[in-house]
Design a protein that fits this description.
The structure holds 2 protein chains of 2 kinds. By secondary structure, chain A is of the alpha/beta class. Helices cover 36% and strands 18% of the residues of chain A. Classes of the chains: A alpha/beta, B mainly alpha. Chains A and B meet through α3, α4, α7 and α8 of A and α1 of B.
Chain lengths: 464, 58
């Protein structure tokens, strides 16, 4: 939680208001969590039962320390804790299939461990999961409640909407359907998921029950009040429910295929020499400037993000293609990389601020600026395919980071020729001189290196 | 008869009902598995290691 997240007057983070157990607030750039007296008993149980320690050890829960900080709202306060800093907050509509799947499995794994120690998750929001050291972890320490034997899982509906429905849609229909989460902030409505899923999902016991029949039941009992009879859900029933959700999700899969970018590096127009030279320059410049947070805007599978991450920077590798992000995340898992976060993002329409009062989930801009941005082999897509004038591009990048590493791809480059082959060239300023003039308005150009064995230029710039 | 205290999120009537039906059905399986494990235990067959205890979500 690095930067200027949206806050209220007392420092309370505007994403954190629903749960009466407590809330997050920011003071002197540090994020604290106030625990209210109403949550004192549950908090004591979380800490004393050994559940906290167990979950933190497994990397499933964010570690925290208790502090002597004054609470933001004194009257209700019980304690103030300081959770570990999350280097970059991401949202489920920015995750690839496997990231959402791992977040779902982490939630169920936490619930199973909690039940064994007499507690239960009272919510199962995908927004409570963040990627910490490369792994999905719960960041809401106040999500636990004492479990009353015989009670239902109150977060069941939320779990199905936030995790199961989007995962099933991505697996059975199209990975781009994760974008539904950007519209439906409390998860995909189950009647909609049921409508969009193919018929064969009704032959899958898990999806039949947890989505299709569940949606039907919601409709049927929509205007009825039901108090569950105590004792209906014995321990076996609860175990069965959680295991069923787990096995249903484990069986969902998605293999990226047939996308335009998936095999991008095999189809590039530049030589191994140019590729290696670019890697070397990114490595040298990040080592020189030592940024803490790097945003690779258009990172594909993360080859250059990894050069930046090698300098020790926490690197967020954004790409528009869910297939590239999926493959990037699989590398992160395989190599156990802790400071690289792949995310899906369309630069021409980046994540907006959404939710109550436009302030529950921050836009990309609100989560910045980064110390350094990389924009490699991306400018021709923005300037030519998307018609963004160069001065506006310079302004966009200048608001995102202090340092910018940007590659200029000229019109004689075969990739640009291809983009222009089917349209009128309305870009007289798209030249090296025009580019440098436009970017000099916002940046000091610190370095300009021709990329060996190519027509391209690589620049290191610093905002004015 | 409600549980107290009530959850801060509305679990939804339809979701509660279907959850209980599904869970009770699946619970029978779990109960059967537990008893079967015991029966096997009488014949000296050890149950598989409990992988839930420290299973890894990733």
């Amino acid at each position: 939680m690095t930067t200027q997240m949206t806050t209220r007057a007392n420092g309370q983070l505007s994403a954190s208001f629903r749960d009466p157990s407590g809330f997050l607030f920011s003071r002197n750039g540090i994020i604290y969590r106030q625990i209210n007296r109403a949550y004192a008993e549950d908090y004591a149980r979380l800490m004393d039962s050994g559940l906290y320690e167990k979950l933190v050890k497994a990397g499933l829960l964010i570690p925290h320390v208790e502090t002597g900080q004054a609470p933001a709202e004194g009257e209700a306060a019980f304690k103030v804790i300081q959770p570990e800093r999350v280097p970059f907050i991401s949202y489920p509509y920015e995750w690839s299939f496997s990231q959402l799947k791992d977040a779902a499995l982490a939630t169920l794994s936490i619930q199973k461990r909690a039940l064994k120690l007499g507690m239960s998750l009272k919510d199962a929001s995908a927004y409570n999961i963040q990627f910490l050291r490369g792994k999905a972890a719960l960041i809401d320490t106040l999500s636990f409640e004492t479990y009353k034997e015989g009670g239902p899982w109150t977060a069941y509906r939320q779990f199905c909407q936030h995790f199961l429905a989007p995962l099933a849609l991505m697996s059975y229909r199209d990975a781009r359907l994760s974008q539904l989460l950007r519209v439906f902030i409390d998860g995909v409505p189950l009647d909609l998921a049921s409508l969009l899923l193919p018929f064969k999902t009704k032959l899958n016991f898990g999806l039949l029950t947890h989505i299709h029949i569940h949606a039907g039941s919601q409709k049927r009992f929509a205007d009825k009040t039901v108090g569950p009879r105590k004792g209906m859900m014995n321990q076996h029933a609860m175990t069965g429910l959680i295991e069923s959700l787990e096995s249903t999700i484990k069986k969902l899969s998605w293999t990226p295929a047939g996308t335009e970018w998936g095999a991008y590096y095999e189809a590039t127009n530049y030589s191994d020499l140019a590729f290696e030279h670019k890697k070397q320059l990114v490595r040298e410049w990040t080592a020189d400037k030592k940024p803490n947070l790097v945003w690779d805007l258009g990172g594909n599978m993360g080859v250059f993000s990894r050069e930046a991450a090698a300098s020790g920077a926490y690197t967020v590798s954004f790409d528009i293609d869910p297939a590239a992000v999926e493959q990037n995340y699989r590398i992160v898992k395989k190599e156990k990389e802790e400071n690289l976060l792949p995310l899906v993002l369309d630069l021409t329409n980046p994540s907006p601020s959404i939710g109550w009062d436009h302030a529950e989930r921050d836009s990309l801009g609100q989560r910045g600026p980064a110390d350094m941005a990389l924009a490699l082999a991306v400018i021709h897509h923005l300037a030519i395919s998307n018609n963004v004038p160069l001065p506006q591009l310079a302004q966009f990048f200048a608001s995102r980071a202090k340092y910018l590493v940007i590659e200029f791809v000229p019109k004689i480059d075969s990739q640009v020729k291809r983009l222009l082959s089917s349209r009128r060239d309305i870009f007289p300023d798209y030249t090296r001189e025009g580019f440098e003039a436009a970017f000099s308005e916002r940046f000091e150009i610190r370095k300009a290196e021709p990329v060996q064995d190519s027509e391209r230029m690589l620049y290191l710039m610093e905002t004015r | 008869m409600h549980f107290s205290p009530l959850p801060y999120l509305d679990p939804g009537s339809g979701s509660l009902i279907i959850q209980i039906l599904i869970a009770v059905l699946l619970g029978l399986g779990v109960a059967f598995r537990a008893s079967w494990g015991k029966i096997k235990g009488w014949f000296g067959i050890k149950p598989k290691a409990d992988d839930d205890a420290d299973d890894d979500a990733s």
